Recover the amino acids of this structure.
């Protein structure tokens, strides 16, 4: 069996002493799409934001346990957090284009990383935009303000903005929650292509999306990992009653 | 990250040096002004109306009286106009009109005080002299000019206080059958009370600290005023009028006048800060 | 007979609109009065010549330059300090005792009257630090005076930048400082500039504090240690001492036009800012 890209071992996260994620063990492999489902406040987002240490910025956050990325604990003191966040690219629920041009949005992360060479920038942008199925729509208008794009385009821009940094893990926090079905389909199509070269973690409130757009599914409830397995199995033959209850309730 | 910690420390240092100005002001003003108060005795300095620098007599009672008179007068005028403006702009005006009028209030705040004083001298002072008698340069003239000058301060803080009142109060009151005006007087003003009080106190602080306009319209006579039409000298004008040529004990006495003013203002500021609601803390990353 | 609430409301509203109308009429009257009397005397030579005979004749060029130097320098000093303080308060600390102390200091400083700043600048900059009555003493005094305004307006502008922008920037691998520099300040700059422009207006208008710190020399300032009379002080002296009413009105007109221009600029910047952060 292949080595996991990310291995979460006995991970706990809490805010001001209130646990949000409890003793989580989970592995995320290369070239897979892992969906994380569960009702509100089940720790999905907290877990996701632990993978790139974005929770570190919240006051009162504390954690224990390990998250290994390629065998190296991301919470080790010698880890370059900025570099980690570039390699574990995050997409938020609501598209947040920075109030700049499309081009400036795309190159911001690269410039932060110190890459200024124009040819490299342009090349990376094109690759990322093609991955996000956005190249044809914006290639002639890169200097326009990003907020003139439609909501779906903005979210794909946010995905491309992460992809230019060539991450190996892509974490998406309900990326389609505000989008129409056509935009959602485009993003799901993009994920199919992206999984060839990325590990993808998709948090979603929409179990249908999890069923459509993931290879494995994990079910979180109140901070506990109830069950994880191949998506087809989780949705047809869940081993845990609570998983079944949740899925039935959702479909009901 | 290490770099962020260093930058944070530098920024803290800058922030502290910024407010250290307040400490410096206190120290230097007090060091220049307090000794002469101690030498003359507080009673002699604060409770005598004799101000004759050439004879070594430094009593500032008439200026304290003058400052109080014009400040109360200015507040009376300023409060009526400011509250009227604040209420009408927040409660009874179409939003577009309010948005257009607010910059004009800011413009009113931007006009130099010397211009206020000057226009007061050439228009208001003769008007008072001809219609009401007296020299024209008077408590009344100063009160009117200062009342207009503090209007932007009171209005803008009062507008903030009124806008901070939850709209549910308005809806709840209207639903009970109150008119909008009844709601304003009975519900909204009450809810915004502390902010409005703070606005008025800050406005009074502005009035008592204003210098150039008062010099020009108040007449600067060294007497405790007995009527609105009497000329007065304020604490501020006393300093500005005489600093140019004062030396020795005279200069110290002017600094002592400044100490008096500084203490009054600081007490007003602290009172206003106590009344103004605490700023809501923002939840944020970082 | 009981007056109906609707009628009381109508009377109250009419009364308040009358107050508002009076206020704006006073504003228009002041501006029009000064400009109508003064603008005819504002000629090219008035703006470019030095005064003669204590200001009875000649122009106001040294005062324009003096005002420019004193106000410009004070804002140049106050802006970086004020913006840095605002950045510290908003981005580098949590609300606590330290922020309370800094805010209290800034609030108190904001309430100190200009004549006190003048006294302080006189004894501290001019005498203790041996700068004399000079452009430098005057501008440092004014810098201290406008600092609270710059801190407060910058803080508000920075707070108005959506938190999601910060999240995105961190997510793309920025340090806090990079986030502040490239995301927060870039969005907040029009709002911060509004505060700076309004502060510049306050410096130009200020009279009492500059009178005690920058002096009232009529000649052209040749260095920062020279005394220089600002426009506002020149106007005060001309009118107060009855030297020349025509030149007083003309000087006041120049002053008013500068203030109008700065207020317009501030208004324009604010609209730009609101459009940018989308409030």
């Amino acid at each position: 069996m292949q080595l996991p890209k990310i291995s979460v071992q006995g991970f706990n996260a809490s805010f001001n002493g209130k646990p949000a994620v409890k003793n989580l063990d989970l592995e995320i492999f290369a070239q897979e799409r892992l969906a994380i489902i569960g009702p509100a406040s089940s720790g999905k987002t907290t877990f996701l934001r632990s993978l790139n240490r974005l929770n570190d910025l919240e006051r009162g956050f504390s954690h224990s346990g390990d998250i290994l990325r390629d065998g190296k604990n991301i919470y080790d003191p010698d880890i370059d957090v900025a570099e980690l966040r570039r390699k574990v690219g995050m997409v938020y629920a609501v598209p947040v284009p920075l109030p700049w041009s499309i081009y400036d949005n795309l190159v911001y992360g690269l410039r932060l990383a110190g890459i200024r060479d124009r040819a490299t920038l342009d090349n990376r942008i094109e690759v990322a935009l093609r991955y996000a199925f956005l190249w044809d729509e914006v290639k002639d208008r890169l200097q326009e303000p990003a907020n003139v794009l439609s909501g779906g385009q903005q979210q794909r821009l946010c995905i491309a903005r992460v992809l230019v940094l060539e991450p190996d893990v892509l974490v998406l926090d309900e990326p389609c929650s505000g989008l129409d079905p056509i935009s959602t389909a485009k993003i799901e199509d993009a994920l199919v292509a992206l999984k060839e070269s990325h590990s993808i973690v998709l948090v979603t409130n929409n179990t249908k999306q999890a069923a459509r757009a993931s290879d494995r599914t994990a079910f979180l409830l109140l901070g506990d990992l109830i069950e994880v397995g191949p998506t087809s199995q989780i949705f047809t033959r869940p081993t845990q009653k609570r998983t079944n209850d949740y899925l039935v309730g959702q479909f009901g | 990250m290490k770099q962020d910690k260093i930058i944070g420390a530098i920024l803290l240092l800058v922030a502290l040096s910024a407010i250290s100005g307040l400490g410096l002001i206190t120290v230097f003003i007090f060091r220049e002004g307090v000794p002469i108060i101690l030498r003359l005795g507080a009673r002699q300095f604060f409770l005598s109306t004799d101000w004759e620098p050439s004879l070594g007599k430094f009593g500032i009672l008439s200026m304290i009286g003058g400052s109080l008179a014009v400040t109360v007068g200015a507040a009376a005028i300023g409060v009526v106009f400011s509250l009227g403006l604040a209420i009408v702009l927040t409660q009874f005006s179409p939003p577009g009109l309010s948005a257009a009028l607010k910059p004009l209030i800011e413009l009113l705040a931007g006009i130099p005080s010397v211009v206020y004083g000057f226009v007061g001298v050439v228009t208001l002072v003769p008007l008072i002299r001809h219609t009401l008698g007296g020299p024209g340069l008077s408590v009344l003239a100063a009160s009117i000019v200062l009342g207009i000058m503090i209007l932007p301060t009171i209005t803008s803080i009062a507008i903030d206080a009124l806008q901070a009142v939850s709209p549910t109060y308005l809806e709840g009151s209207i639903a009970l059958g109150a008119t909008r005006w009844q709601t304003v007087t009975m519900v909204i003003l009450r809810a915004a009370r502390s902010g409005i009080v703070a606005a008025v106190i800050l406005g009074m602080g502005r009035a008592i600290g204003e210098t150039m306009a008062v010099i020009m319209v108040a007449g600067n006579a060294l007497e405790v005023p007995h009527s609105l039409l009497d000329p007065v000298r304020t604490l501020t004008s006393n300093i500005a009028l005489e600093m140019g040529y004062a030396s020795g004990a005279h200069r110290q006495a002017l600094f002592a006048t400044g100490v008096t003013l500084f203490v009054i203002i600081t007490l007003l500021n602290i009172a206003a800060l106590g009344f103004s609601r605490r700023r809501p803390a923002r939840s944020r990353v970082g | 007979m009981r007056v109906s609430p609707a009628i009381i409301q109508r009377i109250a509203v009419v009364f308040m609109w009358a107050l508002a109308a009076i206020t704006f009429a006073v504003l228009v009257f002041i501006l029009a009065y000064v400009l109508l009397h003064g603008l005819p005397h504002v000629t090219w030579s008035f703006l470019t010549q030095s005064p003669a005979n204590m200001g009875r004749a000649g122009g106001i060029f040294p005062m324009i330059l003096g005002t420019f130097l004193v106000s410009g320098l004070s804002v140049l000093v106050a802006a970086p300090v004020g913006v840095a303080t605002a950045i510290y308060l908003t981005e580098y600390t949590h609300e606590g005792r330290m922020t309370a102390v800094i805010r209290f200091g800034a609030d108190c400083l904001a309430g100190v009257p200009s004549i006190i700043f003048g006294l302080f600048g006189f004894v501290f900059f001019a005498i203790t630090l041996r700068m004399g009555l000079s452009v430098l003493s005057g501008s440092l005094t004014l810098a201290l005076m406008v600092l609270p305004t710059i801190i407060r307006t910058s803080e508000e502008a920075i707070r108005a930048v959506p938190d999601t922008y910060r999240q995105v920037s961190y997510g793309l691998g920025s340090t806090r400082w990079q986030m502040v520099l490239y995301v927060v300040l870039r969005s907040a700059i029009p709002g911060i500039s509004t505060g700076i422009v309004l502060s510049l207006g306050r410096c130009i208008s200020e009279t009492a504090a500059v009178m005690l710190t920058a002096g009232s020399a009529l000649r052209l300032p040749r260095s920062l240690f020279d005394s220089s009379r600002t426009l506002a002080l020149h106007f005060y002296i001309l009118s107060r001492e009855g030297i020349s009413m025509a030149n007083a009105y003309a000087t006041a007109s120049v002053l008013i036009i500068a203030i109008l221009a700065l207020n317009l600029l501030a208004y324009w910047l604010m609209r730009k800012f609101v459009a940018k952060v989308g409030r």
